[in-house]
Amino acid sequence: MERVFRVLLSRDDWYHQRGYWVIANALKNAGMEVVLGGIQTPAEIARTASNEDVDLIGYRIMQAAPDMVIKALFREMKVNGIESLPVVVGGIISDKEEKIIKELGVKVVFRSFDKLETIQKQVRTIAIESFNR
Question: Which residues contact 124 (CB under 8 A, 6 or more apart)?
């Protein structure tokens, strides 16, 4: 039987919600369990990820400074003992910011027009690789 991966999805604001819900549905349709965190601070994301025993964190960033919130998220993940969890990011991220947050440890940055099948496959692959370590 194939393992069902648990993914926490969080976001940084009330606006531009459609993509958040589309991704949640796509991951669910791909056989993953999706924990909807809603709007959360990095500290709340880390606590939720720890409490919900997820395999991967997906963070939709539209308004915040990605490098600052990702640094804070990784700091909070360490405090909660989950620093090995993979993190993927989606939203409006410049090329410069993408480079910085990947250097910080983000596995992949998804763009607005990435195909759902690609996102599903990449999320599953990252979760499998993390689980098998």
Answer: 5, 30, 32
What is the residue range of 69's domain?
6-126
In the chain, the number of structural domains is 1
Q: What is the pLDDT along the chain (133 residues), one digit of tens a residue?
A: 578 999 999 999 887 788 899 999 999 999 999 999 999 999 999 999 999 999 999 999 987 789 999 999 999 999 999 999 999 999 889 999 999 999 999 999 999 889 999 999 999 999 999 988 7
**Does pTM top 0.85 for this prediction?**
yes
- CATH assignment of the domain containing 76: 3.40.50.280
